Task: structure prediction
Amino acid sequence: MRSLIVNGRNEVGLFSHFFSSIGACDYLEKNPEYDNVYFDLRVDIYDNMNIWEFLFEQGKLPDPKAENFRSGFTDFNYKIGCFLSEEDRNSIYRLIQKYVVIKKDIRAEYDELARTYADRPYVAVHRRATDHYMHGEIVDVQHFFRALDDARQRLGIPHVYLATDDLVTLEQFKEHYGSDLIYIPHFVRVTGDKGIHAHPQITDKKRVLKEALFEGLLLAGASYLVKTYSNLSMFAICMNRDLPYVDVDKHVYYDVVPSRFRLPHLGWGIRRNFRKFRQKLVDYIIGVK
Result:
């Protein structure tokens, strides 16, 4: 029998690694020549810490003949971040229930946080703003407000939980929702186009990991989710398969074509300006000012 080892990749964050690991668990079940999986997610941007061992219980140690299972080359990983079918959502939920156990101290810290800030029904939203450029132009905040206000009215739930690592987004939501807004005030947030996990000024990587996981769990605990194109949003609906949600950005033209199939002769600037024009046209058509 042999073991699979899931290795880390330096250019991606916690939830990309999480879903690659879930994909490895799926691969393990479909290939009986392997009998266990070991998560060796040591990543430079997290100070070479094994991010799985910090947050979750580890699997069995690998045997000497273990095969490296590179993070990112899994069946599920290609679907995560896009728009998930209910069949895949249920499959991922089952794998999470079987293979993922949050460490007791991490779970206890989260439970205390949830009792303090999420002690009432709420609708939740994740707005990706810092590193949105990885997939396309930033989604106008009015799209989120419109989807949230519709959900609040339909469900009769006034409170909104906001998950974001962007300070500008936080200020916009505070202005719009006032005392109905729930957010964790001491969580790290930044401005600019660097995601929190890769930001050069953020040095406490354990704090970043815990806060990212807690944001995902708080989203999963909502009565309704306004989700965006992100593995964090996807984590929430896979942790809670009964969570109703809406994809706020299905109208957005994300640049998900592999780089080798893009049009390099046009140049990055021309492609980017074309995407901006295309998005502004879509926003105008559907009435977002």
